[in-house]
Amino acid sequence: MPSPVLLGSGFASTEGRELKARKIEAVIADFMGQCEVAALHILDIGCGSGHIAAYFAHRNRMTACDVVDQVATPERARFELVIAETAQLPFADGGFDLILSNHVIAYVRDPQRHVREIARLLKPGGVAYLATPNRYFPFEPHTKMPLVHWLPGPLYRWSMRRLTGRSDAYHVPGYWELIKWFGAAHLKSQDYTMRIIHDPERFYMPAPHCVRLPDACKLLSPTCVFMLSR
């Protein structure tokens, strides 16, 4: 039986979704050397509430997928929703110009397989936006407890069950772990983490996060943001 690609209970957030979508578009447009993201076939993996998918659907052909239907946006008719519960997503090879993976990889059973699926589904010359919590950030992203996620995998998951009551197998990846997975999937990667922090107005970064830091500090950023390409 195929293993689930995402944790079965799903997760959806509606807070600040339009601002998040604008940030994502700004990063992608900057990477592609364009003013906006338009006329592309886009896949949003782990779409959650669907607000980000709906935003991009205004100027693109939009497909979204998740393990359960959690769509809360009134604009759900603008995009196609596909329920996908297997490690191999139900789409043909090379079918998408752009793939969004916004804080999804930490919730999949096999995160390296997730990266390989992105590579499989991208058209030649296609690009992907991938954002994830950073394992090296000293505070665990779900509980805000210091250093819990630095524990070995089994002890970390046990701690999370005790702290949150959930049995899901979180895996918060580290920076160099991600770089290794990208290379193994034959994806080129460009790290946008510090570029976003250094130019917050361009990338719609909320003011409290606008702290000018040396590039070496990206390893301690709470979030890692990458653009990937085939």
List the helices and strands and how they pair.
Layout: H1 17-32, E1 41-45, H2 51-57, E2 61-66, E3 80-83, E4 96-102, H3 111-121, E5 122-133, H4 153-164, H5 175-184, E6 188-191, H6 193-198, E7 223-229
Parallel strand pairs: 1-2, 1-4, 2-3, 4-5
Antiparallel strand pairs: 5-7, 6-7
Describe this structure in words.
It is a single chain. This protein has helices at 17-32, 51-57, 111-121, 153-164, 175-184, 193-198, and strands spanning 41-45, 61-66, 80-83, 96-102, 122-133, 188-191, 223-229. The protein has 230 residues and is of the alpha/beta class. It has a 7-stranded mixed β-sheet, sandwiched between helices. It starts with 16 loop residues before the first helix and ends with a strand. 37% of the residues are buried.
Number of strands: 7
Measured between the Cα atoms of the first and last residue, the distance is 30 Å
% residues in beta strands: 15-25%
What characterizes the major β-sheet? 7 strands, mixed
Mean pLDDT: 85
Radius of gyration: 17 Å
Shape: globular
Q: What structural class should be given to the helix and strand makeup?
A: alpha/beta
Neighbour order of strands in the largest sheet: 3-2-1-4-5-7-6
- How many DSSP H or I helices? 6
Report low-confidence residues grouped into runs of 5 or more.
Answer: 1-12
> What portion of residues is helical?
25-40%
Order of helices and strands: HEHEEEHEHHEHE
